Amino acid sequence: MQLNGKVALITGAASGIGKRIAEVYAQAGAAVAIADINLDAARKAADEIAAAGGKAIGVAMDVTSEAAVDAGTQAVVDAFGQLDILVSNAGIQIVAPLVDYSYADWKKMQAIHVDGAFLTTRAALRHMYPGDRGGTVIYMGSVHSHEASPLKSAYVAAKHALLGLARVLAKEGAAHNVRAHVICPGFVRTPLVDKQIPEQAQELGISEEEVVRRVMLGGTVDGVFTTVDDVAQTALFLAAFPSAALTGQSFVVSHGWYMQ
Ligand code: NAD
Question: What is the pLDDT of residues 94-150, one digit of tens each?
Fold first, then answer.
């Protein structure tokens, strides 16, 4: 029970990677808040954790809304009394060639990935800084925090931005015992990735099987997808790590695709 007595807020935790992190954190003893734009799915995920003996609530939160982030974070502290871990994970993907990328889609991508990371960080720090009680902030980056791929201009730019944010927080937060990290997964089979397979096949003029084999897994050492559990176990290790020996770093979890 490495997270006994801790409270974690995880955005985008009604599905995919965030959902698995919430489950693993709850199994490790944390009280978890599943914050998502889809409140019904967040409540369902929280109910599943509670049914398995964990402590969880679903919280409505659109991470692009300053008011929703501040109110949702306050609701978590009202429910559980404190906040120790933020996992800024909510995300979407919109693929298109740069020359055709709509400005509205570009702004939507930056709003969710970058503005959302900023807003949730600021709201969390307001509960972590008092008394220097501290905490851990984990951003869900990607191999695309380090590497580029065609069709993903907005995503690659946004995921690179998270490295900068985490490094600033590592420096500013140190005096208050706050640490920051970026986890950088390779491709994980979640709804976000399943949606992209036919879209990329059409844009690149190749089969869906080739998208998986060449585009998604071509850079790995073994042609294997990363799993939600691989990412969640990394998030558990970082949240439970006992000192600031680890802060301001990024951790690539990708079957060898992009070696730092
Ligand atoms: P997913 O689609 O399974 O889950 C994303 C969740 O975010 C959903 O529950 C959705 O409702 C929520 N969400 C979307 N917009 C939101 C908003 N404005 N406010 C709050 N919640 C919102 O996706 P996933 O694959 O689990 O992705 C989670 C994170 O992991 C994303 O940041 C993604 O970029 C990153 N990531 C995913 C992969 C992958 O291969 N799946 C790889 C690297 C990084």
Answer: 999 999 999 999 999 999 999 999 999 999 999 999 999 999 999 999 999 999 999
What are the residue ranges of helices labelled H in the chain? Answer: 16-27, 39-51, 66-80, 103-110, 116-128, 153-173, 191-204, 208-210, 228-240
pLDDT tens for each residue of 88-104: 999 999 999 999 999 99
CA end-to-end distance (rounded Å), the chain: 31
- Residue with the two structure tokens 């220097």: 132
Please state whether 134 falls in left (phi above 0), alpha (psi between -120 and 50) or beta: left
Is 155 in the active site? yes
Tell me how far apart the alpha carbons of residues 159 and 19 are, in angstroms, rounded to a whole number: 20
The domains of the chain, with CATH numbers, are 7-186+227-247 (3.40.50.720), 187-225 (no CATH)
Is the distance from the beta carbon of residue 139 to the nearest atom of ligand 1 less than 6 Å?
Answer: no
Q: Which of 101, 103, 139, 155 is catalytic?
A: 155
Tokens 């590497």 -> residue: 147
Under DSSP, the state recorded for 54 is -
Ligand 1 binding pocket includes 153 (Cβ within 6 Å): no
Q: Strand 7-11 and strand 31-36: pairing?
A: parallel
